[in-house]
User: Fold these one by one.
Assistant:
Number 1:
Amino acid sequence: MSAASSSSTLPSLVLRMWRQLEVEAGQRVLEVGTGTGYSTALGAHRLGGDRLTSIEYDSAVGRAAASALAAAGYAPRLVIGDGMRGDPEGGAYDRLIATCSVRYVPMAWLHQVKPGGKILVTLSGWSYASGLAHLTVTGPGTATGRFLPGYTSFMIARPHDRPPRPTPALLPGGERPSRINPAVIGTWTGGWVAQLAAPAAERMGAGPEQILWDISTGSQARTAPGPDGGWTVVQRGPVRLWDRVETAIRLWQAAGEPHQEGFGITVSAVRQRVWIVGEEGPGWDLPA
Ligand SMILES: C[S@@+](CC[C@H](N)C(=O)[O-])C[C@H]1O[C@@H](n2cnc3c(N)ncnc32)[C@H](O)[C@@H]1O
């Protein structure tokens, strides 16, 4: 069975995102992920088609959206291409809204959105955790922002998707007690923290029986309930995945276990960092 490559976003979510984008009349907006064209139609209705460009990766999906938008009487500029590269014709935008998620903020966006402009995008990863980021571009190639409350997730952008991997085989490794209850990484924000700590890992399993598989190195970690009411972890490979996850979860717990709105992000040409508490607080580099 092949995975879906495009899906229609919940209409209420799209509407909320257009509000969160804080778009004003007369502004130019770049949308990434046209999909059915529903969110594009809302944007074109609000701004006028001449102010909106929407990029779709999949040409068949893009053609269907073009017909639907024309039938509905909207004429935004539609582009078939990789939105991670921004608008191929360049141009300065006031706002960028993405309805596919990314592992890190594409650098092209930070040069196409004007300083002072905003980017609304869901950060996700190969462990399927997500956070909706609202960034302000602070200069060419730099931005800072906060994550918004709620539970927003989108399918991951095509070039950011996990590469093909062999069927995971659980192999022996070093065993020790776990210092955290592994079930915490099955929660919305606990899973987000684990993904930040092990950004090349895929998460499988449930409850106290979690499996992390590092796509880059093949390293693995798997947890299980222990005999004494605690938990154990078996780790194998060059990346000690559970060591990283444990440290991150304990930092997050020490900060009071904030939900996503307790996190922020700072982006530059050399580093993309998600942090809690403040810019100087604990944080994790995105795999940019
Ligand atoms: C969740 S759907 C968007 C739904 C859309 N907002 C709607 O209202 O129907 C995500 C879309 O992003 C597209 N996509 C994925 N990667 C992309 C990329 N790199 N550039 C542009 N579009 C991309 C997918 O093909 C898919 O159509």
Note: DSSP finds six helices and 15 strands in the chain.
Number 2:
Amino acid sequence: MKEVKVGIVGLGRLGSVHAENLAFKIPGCKLMAACSLEQKELDWAKTDLKVDFVTTDYKKMVDEADIEAVAIVSSSPEHCWMIEYALDAGKHVFTDKPLGCSLEECKRAEAAVERHPDKLFFLGFMRRYDPSYADAKAQIEAGKVGKPYLVKATGLDPEACVESCIQFCKTSGGIFIDAASHDVDLMRWFLGGEVTEVYAAGTTFKHPEFAAGGDTETGMAMLKFDNGTVAFLHVGRTAPHGYHTETEIVGTDAHIRVAGIPWKNRAMIFDANGACQPIIENFPQRFAEAYLLEMVDFIKCIQEDRKPELTVYDGTKATLVTYAITDSFHSGKPVQVEYK
Ligand SMILES: NC(=O)c1ccc[n+]([C@@H]2O[C@H](COP(=O)([O-])OP(=O)(O)OC[C@H]3O[C@@H](n4cnc5c(N)ncnc54)[C@H](O)[C@@H]3O)[C@@H](O)[C@H]2O)c1
């Protein structure tokens, strides 16, 4: 199998995870170049990952590094122009979620993908690669739940990380845009429909900074789909026990619950307080396997000249829905979702 040479942009919280996977854990892949605005991250790539070509200039990496593919894990507002630039330069592209931060940006990415049908475009909704979610999907397709008609999704960041969430909330576009796109993607995947209407609300009890920043500490939304199915979303920033991601798919014949309690492992301590089992602490821990498996598939898609299941249009749809939820939260009214 031919070796795929990759450059990565973004070496932050998530980019560092992808970079280590690309450098050491994926057969048939060589991490050749890295780009970040942070010199210390570039130094890390050079010394720890043994990447020779490091730069703060994304265009320079795309134009000059010996690469045929780019992994984009930069801040969200940078995604779409970077996708366009890399595709126009003849590179295959992986981009992490969200596709873009507005409909205009997403359309720009769509147009670039349409201009280059011979290039691979791979959207990083990695939960589809998580073995538990993949198993849930397989059970649904095998008819084990009957007709799935409701998805309940919970995504709570740990209180231990609340300070960074408070900082981030001023520029993230709000909790729904930042945190709900994976859940929206899974809802569309499991229910097999498109969102037509959303209604959202939120509340803040522990950290008034969220409300002062125009955001909410806890958010909820109800979603209606064009095939008559429905979904409920609960996102938050203050889980006292750890990183809590939980999903339930309700069907006419059965329910599937993924990670009802987000155990970190199977070790339980029995002491004077009773029996206690540790909980997942953060997203890299919970989804380590999914991040690796999606990147393995990205490289395989290039080697086998194969397109992935997720398309650029899935990215646009998830973005539109999280923006509609945010509009509903701010207006207090139901919002129709229109796909233009
Ligand atoms: N799939 C997931 O579960 C998941 C989890 C976390 C973050 N993300 C997404 O990954 C992306 C990165 O998030 P993060 O938390 O790692 O962010 P971060 O702030 O920790 O890191 C951002 C990185 O992008 C680089 N960067 C930003 N603008 C750049 C530019 N113009 N040129 C070159 N480098 C640039 C920064 O130098 C930094 O290395 C975001 O889009 C986020 O939504 C996805």
Note: The first helix runs from residue 15 to 25.
